[in-house]
Q: What sequence folds into this?
């Protein structure tokens, strides 16, 4: 959003404020700046109405209508619970201010669910061999599901939770992915990581040195999911995990009576039992310090990282996904995604 549309000088007239509010039917808030461009308060229709009820008029200075005890977040703040409280209290929008009080952006709670202190890495360098010929000239993450690229659903879902530091690792047809990111969304801070060789599903993490946060989210870019990243992150912190892998249930239904025996002597049996196993979804939350054990510039999978964590006695736990998840790996998956997309709840 253009800041000029939502800000106004303290020296302006009330009529100028009303004109600004008229052009902001959704936000319905104007941020008032002093002569140093510092946000010193807000004005809404309600503030003006209350001013008139107190006897103020259109000719009174803006200062008289100003609401100074406004909610805001300071740049670099890590308390995502504060954002959750704002959202639960139905506050429509909160400004993000620099440490000098300058307006950086407005967090619109009609679009943003949270602001998580997390950096994301999306793996987008695979060949997509099983989706040939669709991927002959188009990288798999840029194939469209509905009217939108697969990777774009992940960009937007992450941004919905305030995860706007997004690293994208590329290899096969990487220039197309890079161009797409450059033109996509100016609110997302994309960093393209170019693999010189194929490095597996976690190897390119060793190429990134400028993470801003202490938690890194690693995910495959060809997933379609509405996972609740806030619940995922809260569970990760509560459990004090070194790695938390999002998991999906996999049910196995056996059509026979299964015998339980020892030395061929049957002690009991289960008639057509069902078993539920949990599989990795390709989404991981990782403590930044854990990344130090990844070998530099070598082929290395996320499963290799999990093995190392277990061997070193670190804490690896899983988080069952309760929403939608689909790994678009083959043609039948791609066809299923086209059928499902209109019914996925992104709210």
A:
């Amino acid at each position: 959003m253009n800041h000029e549309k939502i800000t106004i000088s303290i020296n302006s007239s009330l009529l100028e404020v009303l004109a600004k509010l008229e052009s902001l039917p959704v936000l319905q808030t104007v941020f008032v700046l002093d002569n140093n461009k510092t946000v010193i308060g807000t004005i809404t229709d309600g503030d003006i109405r209350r001013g008139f009820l107190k006897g103020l008029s259109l000719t009174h200075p803006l200062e008289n209508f100003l609401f100074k005890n406004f909610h805001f977040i300071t740049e670099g703040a890590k308390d995502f619970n504060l954002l959750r409280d704002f959202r639960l209290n139905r506050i429509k929008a909160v400004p993000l201010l620099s440490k000098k009080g300058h307006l950086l952006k407005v967090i619109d709670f009609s679009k943003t669910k949270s602001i998580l202190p997390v950096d994301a890495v999306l793996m987008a360098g695979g060949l997509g061999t099983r989706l040939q010929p669709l991927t002959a000239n188009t990288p798999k993450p840029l194939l469209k599901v509905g009217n939108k690229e697969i990777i774009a659903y992940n960009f937007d879902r992450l941004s919905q939770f305030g995860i706007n530091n997004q690293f994208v690792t590329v290899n096969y047809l990487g220039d197309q992915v890079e161009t797409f990111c450059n033109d996509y969304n100016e609110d997302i801070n994309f960093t393209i990581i170019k693999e010189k060789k194929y490095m597996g599903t976690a190897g390119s993490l060793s190429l990134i040195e400028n993470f801003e946060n202490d938690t890194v989210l690693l995910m495959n870019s060809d997933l379609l999911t509405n996972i609740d990243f806030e619940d995922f992150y809260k569970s990760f912190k509560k459990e004090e995990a070194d790695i938390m892998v999002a998991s999906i249930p996999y049910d196995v239904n056996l059509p026979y009576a299964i015998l339980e025996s020892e030395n061929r002597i049957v002690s009991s049996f289960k008639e057509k039992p069902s078993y539920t196993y949990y599989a990795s979804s390709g989404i991981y939350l990782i403590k930044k310090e854990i990344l130090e054990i990844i070998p530099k510039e070598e082929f290395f999978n996320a499963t290799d990282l999990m093995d190392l964590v277990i061997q070193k006695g670190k804490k690896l736990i899983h988080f069952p996904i309760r929403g939608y998840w689909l790994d678009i790996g083959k043609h039948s998956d791609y066809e299923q995604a086209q059928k499902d997309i209109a019914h996925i709840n992104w709210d």
